[in-house]
Write a structure and sequence with these properties.
- By secondary structure, the chain is an all-alpha fold.
- About 80% of the residues lie in helices and about 0% in strands.
- Helix 9 packs across helix 14.
- The longest helix is centred in the C-terminal third of the chain and has 53 residues.
- The protein is globular.
């Protein structure tokens, strides 16, 4: 089995291109989660149940998962600049199709296109950043790019809901198409030519899993994201039933989560520059202790608000840290490695929601947060024990 070899790095950072990638993240994630805040009017307008309307999100996730594993192979002969631009085009088309949908089947077509764009973009994002900035700037660049997720978290739920009330839900999706158009213009102006690298075949995915540290690393990632989404999926019932927060208050608490997440994304870059392994282990430990703390105080309002914000800040560092881990563990096949990362992430999102739902039905919100917190603390300890940097570039630290 060949060891990963570091690839040539750019002499200077293309920060304009990094910011255009951030805009792409913002548009894609906003479009992904808009149905959460617009579910009721969508269901009413298309004459389907809210449960069926919710499948607009799961459909996107399924196609994002499939695309993340196949995109590097399917596009291995194409310039990455053109591939990334095509994802912005898909964002525009998806949003327009959803806004014009006269029935649920037509809406799903738009959501499928979004899933392809989302899965493809995330699979290539870390590999692209590696080619835009020198190795020492990669954590900072990833933190900037992932700030688009935090901004979308703040925008998609509260702002999407507000705009849906004063406009139509269709108009909100048209605004998302506008974000996609701005993204295309920004990326067209800033992204350099990026010829394909690596072998990018399906066999590569199998080979990557066999590399030192990959299996245990991906398992650690799945544990962490499963624990988080077991909690996050049922945070509203916890706030309403345990803490006693009214509906308007829930929106405020979640807004605080999103803003803190934004801060955590930026702090992650500094922490990673000191120790990647420490950052990977510290974030889920803080998240787990916050969940257990919320159970321990049994719904005391003000401490719960603080703990939710700390939880959000800690989670902001998780995707940044793990994307950095991918760039250091498989620097020669970062696109295929990114596909595995996205596949693991999407699998864990679904697993967390399912596991949390089963626990919630049997023991309620307190049970979800107790077990989810234990999973996260256990994942942090597991990551500390098993993670190493099997191969890093000379410019990176030995975590």
């Amino acid at each position: 089995m060949s060891e990963p070899q570091p690839l040539p790095q750019p002499a200077s950072a293309a920060w304009g291109a990094v910011f255009s990638m951030t805009l792409g993240v913002f548009g894609l994630v906003t479009a992904e989660f808009l149905p959460v805040s617009l579910l009721t009017p969508i269901a009413r307008d298309l004459q389907v149940s809210e449960g069926l309307a919710g499948q607009a999100i799961s459909t996107t996730a399924i196609f994002a998962l499939i695309t993340s594993l196949l995109i590097a192979t399917v596009t291995r002969r194409f310039d990455r600049r053109h591939v990334l631009l095509s994802f912005s085009v898909l964002l525009i088309l998806s949003s327009i199709i959803v806004s014009m949908a006269e029935n649920f089947a037509f809406l799903l077509v738009g959501r499928i296109l979004l899933g392809v764009a989302l899965g493809g973009f995330w699979a290539m994002s870390a590999a692209t950043v590696m080619r835009l900035v020198p190795a020492t700037d990669i954590p900072r660049a990833l933190a900037i790019m992932f700030s688009g997720v935090s901004a979308a978290t703040v925008f998609a739920a509260p702002v999407g809901s507000y705009l849906g009330d004063i406009m139509s839900w269709r108009s909100v999706f048209l605004l998302t198409a506008g974000i996609g158009a701005l993204t295309f213009i920004a990326q067209f102006a800033t992204l350099p030519s990026l010829p394909p690298r690596g072998r990018a075949t399906l066999r590569v995915l199998v080979d990557l899993v066999q590399r030192p540290g990959m299996k245990l690393g991906l398992f650690s990632l799945v544990l962490i994201i499963t624990g988080h989404f077991a909690l996050f999926t049922y945070v509203r019932p916890f706030l309403e039933n345990v803490t006693g927060v009214a509906t308007a208050g829930v929106s405020g608490v979640l807004l605080g989560f999103g803003l803190a997440n934004f801060v955590g994304t930026y702090l992650a870059g500094s922490l990673i520059s000191r120790s990647l392994r420490m950052t990977i282990a510290l974030m889920p430990m803080i998240m787990g202790l916050c969940a257990l703390g919320m159970v321990g105080i049994d719904g005391a309002l003000n401490p719960t608000i603080v703990l939710v914000a700390i939880w959000g800040m800690a989670f902001g560092g998780v995707p940044v840290a793990w994307s950095t881990w991918i760039t250091r563990t498989v620097p020669d096949e970062a696109e295929s490695g990114g596909g595995l990362f996205v596949a693991g992430f999407q699998t864990a999102i679904a697993s967390g929601a399912v596991i949390g739902g089963v626990i919630f039905d049997y023991v309620g919100s307190l049970g979800v947060f107790s077990i989810g917190g234990i999973i996260l603390v256990g994942a942090a300890i597991f990551a500390t024990v098993v993670l190493r940097s099997p191969a890093v570039t000379p410019a990176t630290e030995q975590a």
